[in-house]
Every structure is written in structure tokens, then in C-alpha cells.
Amino acid sequence: MQTSYIPLAERMRPRTLDNVFGQEHLTGNNAPLRKAMESGKIPSMILWGPPGVGKTTLARMLTGEDRPFYTLSAVNSGVKDVRETIKKAESGRMFNPKPPVLFIDEIHRFSKSQQDSLLAAVENGTFVLIGATTENPSFEVITPLLSRAQVYVLKPLDEGALDKLVAYTIEKDSDLSRRQASIKEKAALYRFSGGDARKLLNILELLMNAVDDTPLIITNELVEKKLQENTATYDKAGEQHYDIISAFIKSVRGSDPDAAIYWLARMLDGGEKPEFIARRLIILAAEDIGLANPQALNIANATFDAVHKIGMPEARIVLAECSVYLAASAKSNSVYLAIDQALDYVRKNPPAPVPLHLRNAPTKLMKQLDYGKDYQYPHDFKGNFVQQQYLPENVKAIRFYKAGSNPTEQKIQEKIKNLSK
Q: 63 pLDDT band (50/70/90 cuts)?
């Protein structure tokens, strides 16, 4: 049993950048956050990443001990709270030359008016703003505020980072050390944590309290058994967010309207933002339905627009209609596969030159070099088509797009074949 009353996740909260695992692109040598911390010059920033990867920890660490640290939660703070915090920051500047830090958790939940109230204070240096968000700031943070802040992307913890975190925790935590804890099998532990350090530490703490054995040997079977018995214990804060949206997406992809409606209801009942769901439907329409039903993307986009205009509770109907439509639609991931294959090719191969007949020739010299000379304008030919090479020479044999086995794409494929003849 555990002897400390402080939760394991809090006991293991990093105190130095060297103990922040999985974010070396931001915290390693010469990385931006380390350089900012070492120089003491902290820019306003947005930390964007999934739960449990260190956003709050990094904000506190960057602030240090020599400047005030104010914090607001976008869930329960309004414009009045922002203004009061600005007044405190302004009065505190008389005693400390360094601007204080205002940390706003879940800044994506701030309304436009709340975000507007921050602008002047950020611009004149009343405080340094550090916002934390799990949502794409391009969608959720107003442009004027975004232009005044650096955006740093935090990654989900991969297996290597989780290995380091577990080894560090078992070594440093007195309770786990006393129990001679060890990880015999890690697949279930890592799967259920989903790259979330807080969730992983909560699971370790649950196992420590639920099992009396010493040594405490963690196996896949033990993790699965205890989590099934204690789901509410490790998921008090609604951290199944990503599991449920995953189930929803997979239900729509799998053409099961009933399952899609069920998981949609779970999300809405749990307080999920309808815009978050609507954005996922747009992605799904492009990724999983694609050219099998091009109208799906239009409907998903219209759904996002309608949800944004009307809000809850009526938005539930629009989301449900779109979810059922997408679930019942024909499916194809051909375009998704095509762009990923093309990106993979581009990243692994040297850049191929643009064929001369496709190049732009805005200057006299370029025209003399035959840029664009042999280009044939398709509209000058019957059917607005002429056979000519559009790919670089060393790429022309590769086919990135392969039509899916659905009527719409088969028609597209047949049309392309007929044109090429």
C-alpha cells in the first residue's frame, strides 16, 4: 500500500528540464524552451499537445522562482477574472522588473471576448502569456493573439519516453521502490496510458494500492484485470476523451450508424465541445470516404458551420445527422493513401526538377532557356485534353493514386483510361 498522501503523478512532477521525457525537440540542448529558460527571456507562447505530456509542468518550470506566476482555468474564469489578474500583474511590476507569467489552462475554451481582453496586456508586456491547449490553436485561438505568441507542439509520449518515465519513477518513488516494483510486461500499461504520463502514473498508483504483493510485478493480465475493476478510479477526470472519440471514428469508418450515435451521445453527455466532434467528422469524410462519395466532405463542412452557428443543444441533431450519413456512406481511403505515399516518396528521394515545358517563364531569360516552350494548353484540344508528361522523368512510372473499388472512383478511373487512349 502507498504511504504518501500526495498523488504519484504530483510526486513525480519534473523539477528540471532533464526529467521532462519525450519533448527533447523543445527541452534538449539548444532547443527553444531550454534556451528561453537559460536566458530568462520567456516569450508569450501556446503549448499545444495531448493531455499528460507536460504543458503545465513546463509553464511552471519556465517561470522559475524569481517572477510571479498567475494561473487561470478557461473552464471557470471569465473576462472579470482576466481583468483582475491584469491589475495584479500591473501592480506587481513595481517590485519586480521581470514580467509575471499568466498561465491559462485549456485556453481553447476561452471565448473571443475573453481572448480579446488579453491582447493589450500581452502586447505591452504586462505579463508573459503561456496558454495550454489540446486543440489546434489555429482554430481555437484568435489570430491577433496567435500572432503575438510562439506555438510549441508537444508530442504524445512514445515507447522510449514511457520507458524512461517508468524507470525514473520506480527508482525515485519511495513507495514503488519499497514494493520492489518491476515491469515484466508493458504492452497493456502503455496501451491504456495512450502516451499520457499522468494517466500512466495514475495506473501505477492504482496497481500499487490494489495489489498487496511484494515484489509488485506488473504484467498485462494484472493491468487489464485491475483497470476493469477500477475504471472510475483512474478515470475521474474524464481522461477517456481520446478513447471515446477513437471509438466514434472507428464506428463511422466501420459503417455502423447505431454505434456512431451511441459514442456521439457519450461525448455530448460528457460535455465534449460539439466543434471538436464536427472537425473530426470533416477529417473522417476526407480520410475514410473520400472520392467514394465526394458529397460527404461538403456535408461534414456544412455540419461544422451549422454547429458553430447554432450551438448546443440543437447542434446534437446536426451532428447526429452527419454521423449517420457518413456511417452509411460508401468508403474509400484511396486519396489518403495517395498523399501519404507521395509524401513518403518526396521525403526519401532527392527533389526532382520540374520538366522544362511545365516551368513558368516570367522573364526574357527564362523564355530564351525554353521554359514553358513545349507546353500544350489542354483547352486548345478536343475534349480539353492532350497527352503530355506532367511528372519528372524519374517519377513518371510511379502511380500514387489507385482508385478504390466503388462506383464513383471506378468511373473516374475509366475516364482517365479513356483520355489516355
A: confident
Which residue from 147, 216, 187, 159 is spatially nearest to 8, judged by alpha carbons? 216
> Helices 241-253 and 257-269 sit at what angle, rounded to 10 degrees?
160
Q: Topology of 351-420 in CATH?
A: post-AAA+ oligomerization domain-like (1.10.3710)
Give long-range contacts, CB 8 A cutoff, 24+ apart: 73-78.
73/104, 73/105, 73/106, 74/104, 74/105, 74/106, 74/107, 74/108, 74/109, 74/110, 74/114, 75/105, 75/106, 75/109, 77/104, 77/114, 78/114
Taking only the tens place, the pLDDT of each residue in 27-38 is 989 999 999 988
* Interior/surface letters 50-68, b for 16+ CB within 10 angstroms, e for the rest: bbbbbbbbbbbbbbeeebb
What pLDDT, on the 0 to 100 scale, is given for residue 67? 83
Topology, domain 159-234: Helicase, Ruva Protein; domain 3 (1.10.8)
Helices then strands, counting H and E runs in the chain, come out as 22, 7
Q: Within a 13 Å sphere around the CA of 257, how many CA atoms are in the beta-carbon half?
A: 10
The class (CATH top level) of 241-328 is mainly alpha
Distance CA 324, CA 396 (A): 40
C-alpha cell of residue 143: 489570430
Least confident window among 38-52, 119-133, 216-230, 319-333? 216-230
C-alpha cell at 12: 513525480
**pTM of the full structure:** 0.57
Single-letter residue type at 10: E
Among 201, 189, 192, residue whose Cα is nearest residue 14 = 201
